[in-house]
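We were asked to recover a plausible sequence for a given structure. The inputs and outputs are reproduced exactly as logged, with field labels preserved.

PROBLEM: sequence recovery
POSITIONS: 135
GIVEN STRUCTURE:
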């Protein structure tokens, strides 16, 4: 099964200096990402690529990360995924859980493709739990 990787995990692998700066959960996520890369199970969507590349001050570092991420083609996102993301957002919000719009897009794409999501983001994890109970 493919794994759709959240921007926070990509950042831990590509942007942070040194594993010692990562928590145990973050280190585990990086190892899971590295395993998924080795096994050819990694998936990415354009909005995640944009999040990972945003905020990089040094042009050389930006270009290096852009080339690295270039090894992973974007999963196409049809209009239906955006509509489903909005529906999922509304479900979570009605349950008192605020979710990011890109997070909901991750959930919509993962659901359509029957993929897992790799994240350490507590907010996204809460959204995923709400959506699991929704069935």
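RECOVERED SEQUENCE:
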């Amino acid at each position: 099964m493919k794994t759709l990787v959240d921007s926070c995990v990509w950042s831990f692998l590509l942007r942070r200096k040194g594993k010692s700066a990562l928590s145990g959960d973050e280190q585990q996520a990086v190892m899971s990402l590295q395993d998924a890369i080795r096994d050819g199970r990694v998936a990415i969507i354009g909005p995640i690529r944009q999040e990972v590349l945003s905020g990089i001050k040094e042009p050389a570092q930006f270009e290096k990360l852009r080339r690295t991420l270039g090894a992973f083609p974007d999963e196409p996102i049809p209009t239906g995924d955006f509509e489903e993301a909005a529906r999922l957002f509304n479900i979570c919000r009605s349950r008192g859980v605020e979710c990011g719009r890109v997070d909901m897009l991750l959930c919509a794409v993962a659901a359509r493709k029957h993929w897992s999501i790799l994240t350490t983001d507590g907010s996204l994890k809460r959204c995923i739990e709400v959506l699991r109970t929704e069935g």
